[in-house]
Amino acid sequence: MTHNHAFPAGGEPTWPTGFRGYTGHGGLRDSGDDISIVASDRPATSAAVFTRSLFAGPAVLLSRKHAAGRGLRAVTTLAQNANVATGRRGEENAAEVVRRVAGILGVPEGEVLIGSTGVIGRPLPMSTILPHFDRTAERGLAAFTAAPRDVARAMMTTDTRPKTASRTVGRARLVAVAKGVGMLEPDMATMLAYVFTDAALSPADLDTALRGAVDRTFNCLSVDTDTSTSDTVAVIANGAAGPVDPALFAEALADLCLDLTLQLASDGEGATKLLRVTVGGARDHAQAKRVAKSVVNSPLVKTAVHGADPNWGRVLMAIGKCTDETDIDPARVTVKFGDTEVYPEEPEVDTLGQLVDLMRGDEVDIAVTLGIGTGEATVYGCDLSADYIRVNADYTS
Amino acid sequence: MTHNHAFPAGGEPTWPTGFRGYTGHGGLRDSGDDISIVASDRPATSAAVFTRSLFAGPAVLLSRKHAAGRGLRAVTTLAQNANVATGRRGEENAAEVVRRVAGILGVPEGEVLIGSTGVIGRPLPMSTILPHFDRTAERGLAAFTAAPRDVARAMMTTDTRPKTASRTVGRARLVAVAKGVGMLEPDMATMLAYVFTDAALSPADLDTALRGAVDRTFNCLSVDTDTSTSDTVAVIANGAAGPVDPALFAEALADLCLDLTLQLASDGEGATKLLRVTVGGARDHAQAKRVAKSVVNSPLVKTAVHGADPNWGRVLMAIGKCTDETDIDPARVTVKFGDTEVYPEEPEVDTLGQLVDLMRGDEVDIAVTLGIGTGEATVYGCDLSADYIRVNADYTS
């Protein structure tokens, strides 16, 4: 029903019917585009989820208010600066950016979502941002020539590559752009990910599809346990391709979000490989997810995966530290790396050699069963490398 | 009342009256002593706390049983191998080690505590351990010539230095040995830390003093969020110096445990500096500790501290991700690095320069106030460096 390659030529996706993109340099970083806008040329329905961080920034607070109208039709993103913990001035600046974007597009401010990620606690450089919007306003819609990949690139902070994905459902297309590599343990929502579709869907169907997809994709992703103050996921549907079956749409959306999740995990700060942990036989999905997250987040598991060190005991340690899960009985737990059982069946010395080979791959799969019930969850993360330290020990200045 | 330097010469501590130490090489590592014993020559009272890990190993399970008698008088430690997830054979091996040690000392097995840390999932090398005990048995107590520092060294795994500490209370002394640098977020108890004293104390007083001390010291320590399967803290009091005031003893014990906690944090795997986070104005102590742990454990805070990067926004992020603490209001939060407020009073550019200087020190203090109540907690951790990755990406093999 859904197709991974919406564009037979294998090239990068173009926007769905009725959407257009813009990128420009507003002085948020030294060089390269750092401001982006994606807009629908007609009214749209929308759904969005946001970070639960107590320190959610003005961009999130304002966008949450606008998203409540379920009629977003444009998204603007400022890269490199989260505009968080910037006081009253930060709120005014976020509102001014939205005002400018709405003006350029000729739409109500309430139909614009604003995303902002990057350094916390630094005022936005309005002295360069406002002149930038003045120039863009003069050019008008003629300035909207950016492809999805251009927008994804303009949203990047420490990402090493732009992230896009697309799917088709009937005659409709879904095209998504995302960013996020660190401060990345989405909770309720995630980093920045925007999905644009020309399908026609009610806000309620969009909302159901989005929450269902986010719960099993972005919310199952953790690079470093640090939940961002700026996480935002939104889907905007302008209906240009007509109605589609909501169930098929939900399936395509979940598939597309998983695609982005894997891209985000693989490009985790310093990551050299994808780590996928599945826990089955749990009391319920929530327990499976808690245990899987404990494994995927354990620095000792992550470093072992990085070093292709078959130190499988660290997986038991990570399960064992879930001390609230009192129904877990070590005697009923099993652990596999790929297809190789390491517990309770102790691997022989030559099996350890196979484990090393397996762990040298680009993707490492760890499967745990708890022997309690039928709950299952898969979470996505990455290894922990010295590059994570390098990237993060010297980021603000 | 308590003195930091029990030994005026400034040298390493010797055992309290009636205790003696032994170390030897039992083939657990390639070279260097890896087996140690500390024993009282007379009956003693004791208290102990253990890991809450669901995968607690045979050493912990057996020791927990013996500790229940509150009359431990000896501790033996095997380094380099945790003897965890080793099945029935692991249980038999732990029991056999205790049997041998009890035999050498001529005491009941139930008075011996066994500690084991290191790799998980590897059987103990009994083919070299048993002959080692045979040889030690022949030498008898004459083999007990090890000082506290020797014992602490024989307990090390990836520790870079042995950890000892001592205090005096009246005529009594307290001498402690400890190990632990990674897989270190003690929960209910901690890594291995043993305190020996010639004070005379009831088991109940010992237990109260130990639990009070552990709660505010070892349990406030986190190197990497990974709770060990082997954590054990025990105090053994043989009474040779006569009775002491229990309150003074408790104070000295807490002070000594704090000393060890700071040593453990500073020697955290790859650590180059101590990170101390104090949260005040919380609803209660428990809330303060949860928020402080969120800050001390944040990989982004730890890497910023490592790089002396004044990226104070990451502290707000780490507070913000405590999404269960719904009474935290960002408008009432304050954050200081050392004496320098960074939130809500935004630091000027030259203040950021001061922050960098401050963060280049061996100890970095972050103080948060929540403006809710009077609860307070201080937690101890360390920075996250590329050496943590190096140490852990290649540890088992």
Automatic annotation (TrEMBL), chains A, B:
Site entry (Involved in the stabilization of negative charge on the oxyanion by the formation of the oxyanion hole), positions: T117, G118
Site location (Cleavage): A189, T190
Keywords: Acyltransferase, Amino-acid biosynthesis, Arginine biosynthesis, Autocatalytic cleavage, Cytoplasm, Multifunctional enzyme, Transferase
Claim: Cytoplasm is one of the keywords in the record: yes
Protein's pathway: Amino-acid biosynthesis; L-arginine biosynthesis; L-ornithine and N-acetyl-L-glutamate from L-glutamate and N(2)-acetyl-L-ornithine (cyclic): step 1/1; Amino-acid biosynthesis; L-arginine biosynthesis; N(2)-acetyl-L-ornithine from L-glutamate: step 1/4
Signal peptide range in chain numbering: none
Superkingdom assignment: Bacteria
Active site: T190 (nucleophile)
EC number: 2.3.1.35, 2.3.1.1
Single GO MF annotation: L-glutamate N-acetyltransferase activity, acting on acetyl-L-ornithine as donor
Localization, UniProt: Cytoplasm
Segments passing through the bilayer: none
Sites where the protein binds substrate: T157, K179, T190, E269, N392, S397
Catalytic activity, as annotated: N(2)-acetyl-L-ornithine + L-glutamate = N-acetyl-L-glutamate + L-ornithine; L-glutamate + acetyl-CoA = N-acetyl-L-glutamate + CoA + H(+)
NCBIfam families the record matches: ArgJ (TIGR00120), PRK05388.1 (NF003802)
Role of this protein: Catalyzes two activities which are involved in the cyclic version of arginine biosynthesis: the synthesis of N-acetylglutamate from glutamate and acetyl-CoA as the acetyl donor, and of ornithine by transacetylation between N(2)-acetylornithine and glutamate.
Subunit structure: Heterotetramer of two alpha and two beta chains.
Family: Belongs to the ArgJ family.
Protein's recorded name: Arginine biosynthesis bifunctional protein ArgJ
Species of origin: Streptomyces drozdowiczii
